[in-house]
């Protein structure tokens, strides 16, 4: 049963067990609320008996008061355990759910992130988790707890007097059926509401991320208009969904109230007919009002339970994604990276690499060059198993990278990407990311080698200065130097440099390249660079055009050959002497 609950509600094993516990405590709490009814009946019975027999109706007052106080303590204890089971367990499960999702995301291949909208993922991690937290602390256990306690109370009522029992209970299945029957309607409108809200949130996040470009393109009005429309649609969808839910739920709740009327009608008839005692009628009237309250609340919460299904479904989708697995320990012959007839496509329709074979040897610098979109960055990322290839294989030191667990593999790589990611932390910690156990001295040495010192010293607190979200307060070149410092600090045997020095000015580029050349000795270096000055220093050049290796060899030979590479070198030499038609140089 635990397995089934786990599956239905996308819970961990502990979460499913806690849900059962919370439901049982809810049953106990609901039943405990019936105990005062019993006490009241006892007291009434005693008073009536005393009055009939001419005795003192206050004689039993102390024992009834003591029993009442005992019941209060019991109800308090039961509710305390219910609270603990509901809330504390739910919050633990919620934290575990988020950690579990985070852990899962960490293991997923990058292809997954390419297919999913990142703001949608963030929403799943944050708001869906919060919504489920509320559903599991407030609604789901209450729903099942109320159903079970109602069945138990119903059995008691029918056993005591089946006629009165039916008079109280007949409305329950009808009210539940009304709510459950309208589920498809609520689902439909609830899903539309969810999607409309998600579209509005996505759009808002996109606006915040791209505000610079939108302003630069003077598209603010148009973009805001689109966002307004999405917000309006979300508002309309919410109103519609609330209207549908409200109509269904209030109809069911109103129907429930009919039960009190039938209890009075049937009870009075039976009383007049002499087949029911007044005390019994009172018992059913009090019990009915007690019974309907939690049911009424449960009916109102059923919509939230239904709507949590779509969120659970989205989490399940993430949890069921296949992760990249592999061996944690392996033996490498050396650090050569060999591409052997590699085929790869981001989506099934269009291939990015076709039959790519080359080897980047240890102790050499291999440069990947070629026109934009030729597949250079893709090849470098495949070498680090960011994705798995569709055909052929890539080996590191003779071991197929697809057989190695990604984290175990990445220990061998230091990577500097075009798009540097920095964290909201100090400069020091951003560099230490390269090697967590590095001492401050080691971090400073790497920073100096990557030419960070000049700009960091100018910051208010030097290396302890906090840098804003993703280094928003730094220039492109400064961000790149921090990223290079990270790579220098990691000092891994394989170095992947994707346009690593593209944002640097000539002076800094030369200094950073000097630092890099100190780093690259005896290592496997795969660089992607557009500046031929950088490429000409490589040991081997691989020219990728349209996902295929068009040329390969040492740069001097390729220049002599007069092919694509030579053409690229010639073009760049020409472009260095270009000037804008309107610039002062051109003016007579
Ligand atoms: N994450 C991705 N999802 C889908 N397609 C992608 C992705 N990344 C790159 N592509 C596509 O794959 C092709 C190769 O891209 P890649 O970035 O490898 O080229 P590149 O040679 O490094 O280009 P550039 O020199 O402009 O950086 C391009 O057509 C690009 O649009």
TrEMBL record:
Subcellular compartments: Cell membrane
Pfam family of the protein (one): ABC_membrane
InterPro entries from the UniProt entry: AAA+_ATPase, ABC1_TM_dom, ABC1_TM_sf, ABC_transporter-like_ATP-bd, ABC_transporter-like_CS, P-loop_NTPase, Type_1_exporter
Transmembrane segments: 22-41, 61-81, 143-160, 166-185, 264-287
One GO cellular component term noted in the UniProt record for this chain: plasma membrane
Keywords attached to this entry: ATP-binding, Cell membrane, Membrane, Nucleotide-binding, Transmembrane, Transmembrane helix, Transport
GO molecular-function terms, A-Z: ABC-type transporter activity; ATP binding; ATP hydrolysis activity; ATPase-coupled lipid transmembrane transporter activity
Stored SMART domains: AAA
PANTHER family reported for this sequence: ABC TRANSPORTER, ATP-BINDING TRANSMEMBRANE PROTEIN (PTHR24221:SF397), ATP-BINDING CASSETTE SUB-FAMILY B (PTHR24221)
Name recorded for this polypeptide: ABC transporter ATP-binding protein
Species this chain originates from: Neobittarella massiliensis (ex Bilen et al. 2018)
């Amino acid at each position: 049963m635990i397995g089934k609950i786990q599956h239905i509600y996308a819970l961990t094993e502990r979460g499913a067990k806690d849900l059962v516990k919370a439901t049982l405590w809810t049953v106990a709490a609901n039943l405990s609320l019936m105990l005062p009814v019993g006490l009241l009946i006892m007291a009434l019975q005693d008073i009536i008996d005393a009055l009939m027999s001419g005795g003192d109706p206050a004689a039993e007052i102390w024992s009834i008061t003591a029993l009442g106080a005992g019941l209060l303590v019991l109800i308090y204890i039961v509710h305390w355990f219910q609270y603990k089971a509901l809330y504390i367990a739910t919050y633990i499960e919620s934290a575990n759910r988020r950690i579990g999702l985070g852990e899962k995301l960490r293991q997923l291949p990058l292809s997954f992130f390419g297919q999913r909208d990142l703001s949608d993922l963030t929403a799943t991690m944050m708001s869906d988790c919060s919504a489920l937290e509320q559903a599991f602390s407030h609604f789901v256990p209450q729903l099942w707890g109320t159903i079970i306690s109602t069945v138990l109370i119903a059995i008691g009522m029918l056993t005591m007097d089946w006629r009165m029992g039916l008079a109280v209970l007949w409305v329950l299945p009808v009210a539940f059926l009304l709510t459950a029957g309208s589920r498809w309607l609520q689902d439909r409108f609830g899903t539309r509401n969810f999607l409309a809200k998600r579209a509005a949130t996505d759009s808002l996040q996109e606006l915040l991320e791209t505000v610079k470009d939108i302003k630069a393109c003077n598209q603010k009005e148009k973009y805001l208009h689109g966002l307004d429309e999405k917000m309006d649609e979300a508002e309309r969808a919410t109103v519609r969904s609330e209207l549908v839910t409200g109509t269904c739920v209030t109809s069911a709740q109103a129907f429930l109230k009919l039960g009190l009327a039938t209890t009075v009608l049937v009870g009075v008839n039976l009383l007049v007919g002499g087949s029911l005692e007044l005390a019994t009628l009172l018992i059913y009237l009090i019990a009915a009002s007690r019974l309907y309250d939690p049911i009424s609340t449960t009916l109102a919460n059923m919509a939230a339970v239904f709507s949590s299904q779509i969120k659970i479904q989205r989490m399940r989708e993430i949890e069921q994604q296949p992760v990249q697995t592999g061996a944690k320990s392996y033996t490498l012959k050396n650090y050569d990276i060999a591409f052997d007839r590699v085929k790869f496509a981001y989506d099934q329709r269009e291939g990015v690499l076709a039959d790519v074979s080359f080897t980047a040897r240890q102790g050499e610098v291999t440069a990947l060059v070629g026109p934009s979109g030729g597949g250079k960055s893709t090849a470098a990322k495949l070498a680090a198993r960011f994705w798995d290839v569709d055909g052929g294989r890539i080996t590191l030191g003779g071991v197929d990278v697809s057989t190695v667990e990604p984290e175990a593999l990445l220990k061998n790589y230091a990577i500097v990407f075009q798009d540097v990611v920095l964290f909201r932390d100090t400069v020091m910690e951003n560099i230490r990311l390269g090697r967590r156990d590095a001492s401050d001295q080691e971090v400073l040495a790497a920073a100096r080698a990557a030419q960070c010192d000049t700009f960091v010293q100018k910051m208010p607190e030097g290396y302890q200065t906090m840098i804003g979200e993703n280094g928003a307060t730094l220039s492109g070149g400064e961000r790149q130097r921090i990223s290079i410092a990270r790579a220098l600090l990691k000092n891994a045997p394989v170095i992947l440099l994707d346009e690593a020095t593209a944002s640097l000015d000539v002076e800094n580029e030369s200094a950073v390249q000097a630092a890099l050349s100190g780093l690259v000795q005896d290592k496997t270096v795969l660089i992607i660079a557009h500046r031929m000055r950088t490429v000409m220093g490589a040991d081997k050049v691989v020219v990728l055009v349209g996902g295929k290796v068009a040329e390969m060899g040492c740069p001097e030979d390729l220049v002599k050959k007069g092919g694509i590479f030579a053409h690229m070198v010639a073009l760049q030499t020409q472009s260095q002497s270009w000037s804008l038609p309107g610039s002062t140089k051109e003016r007579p």
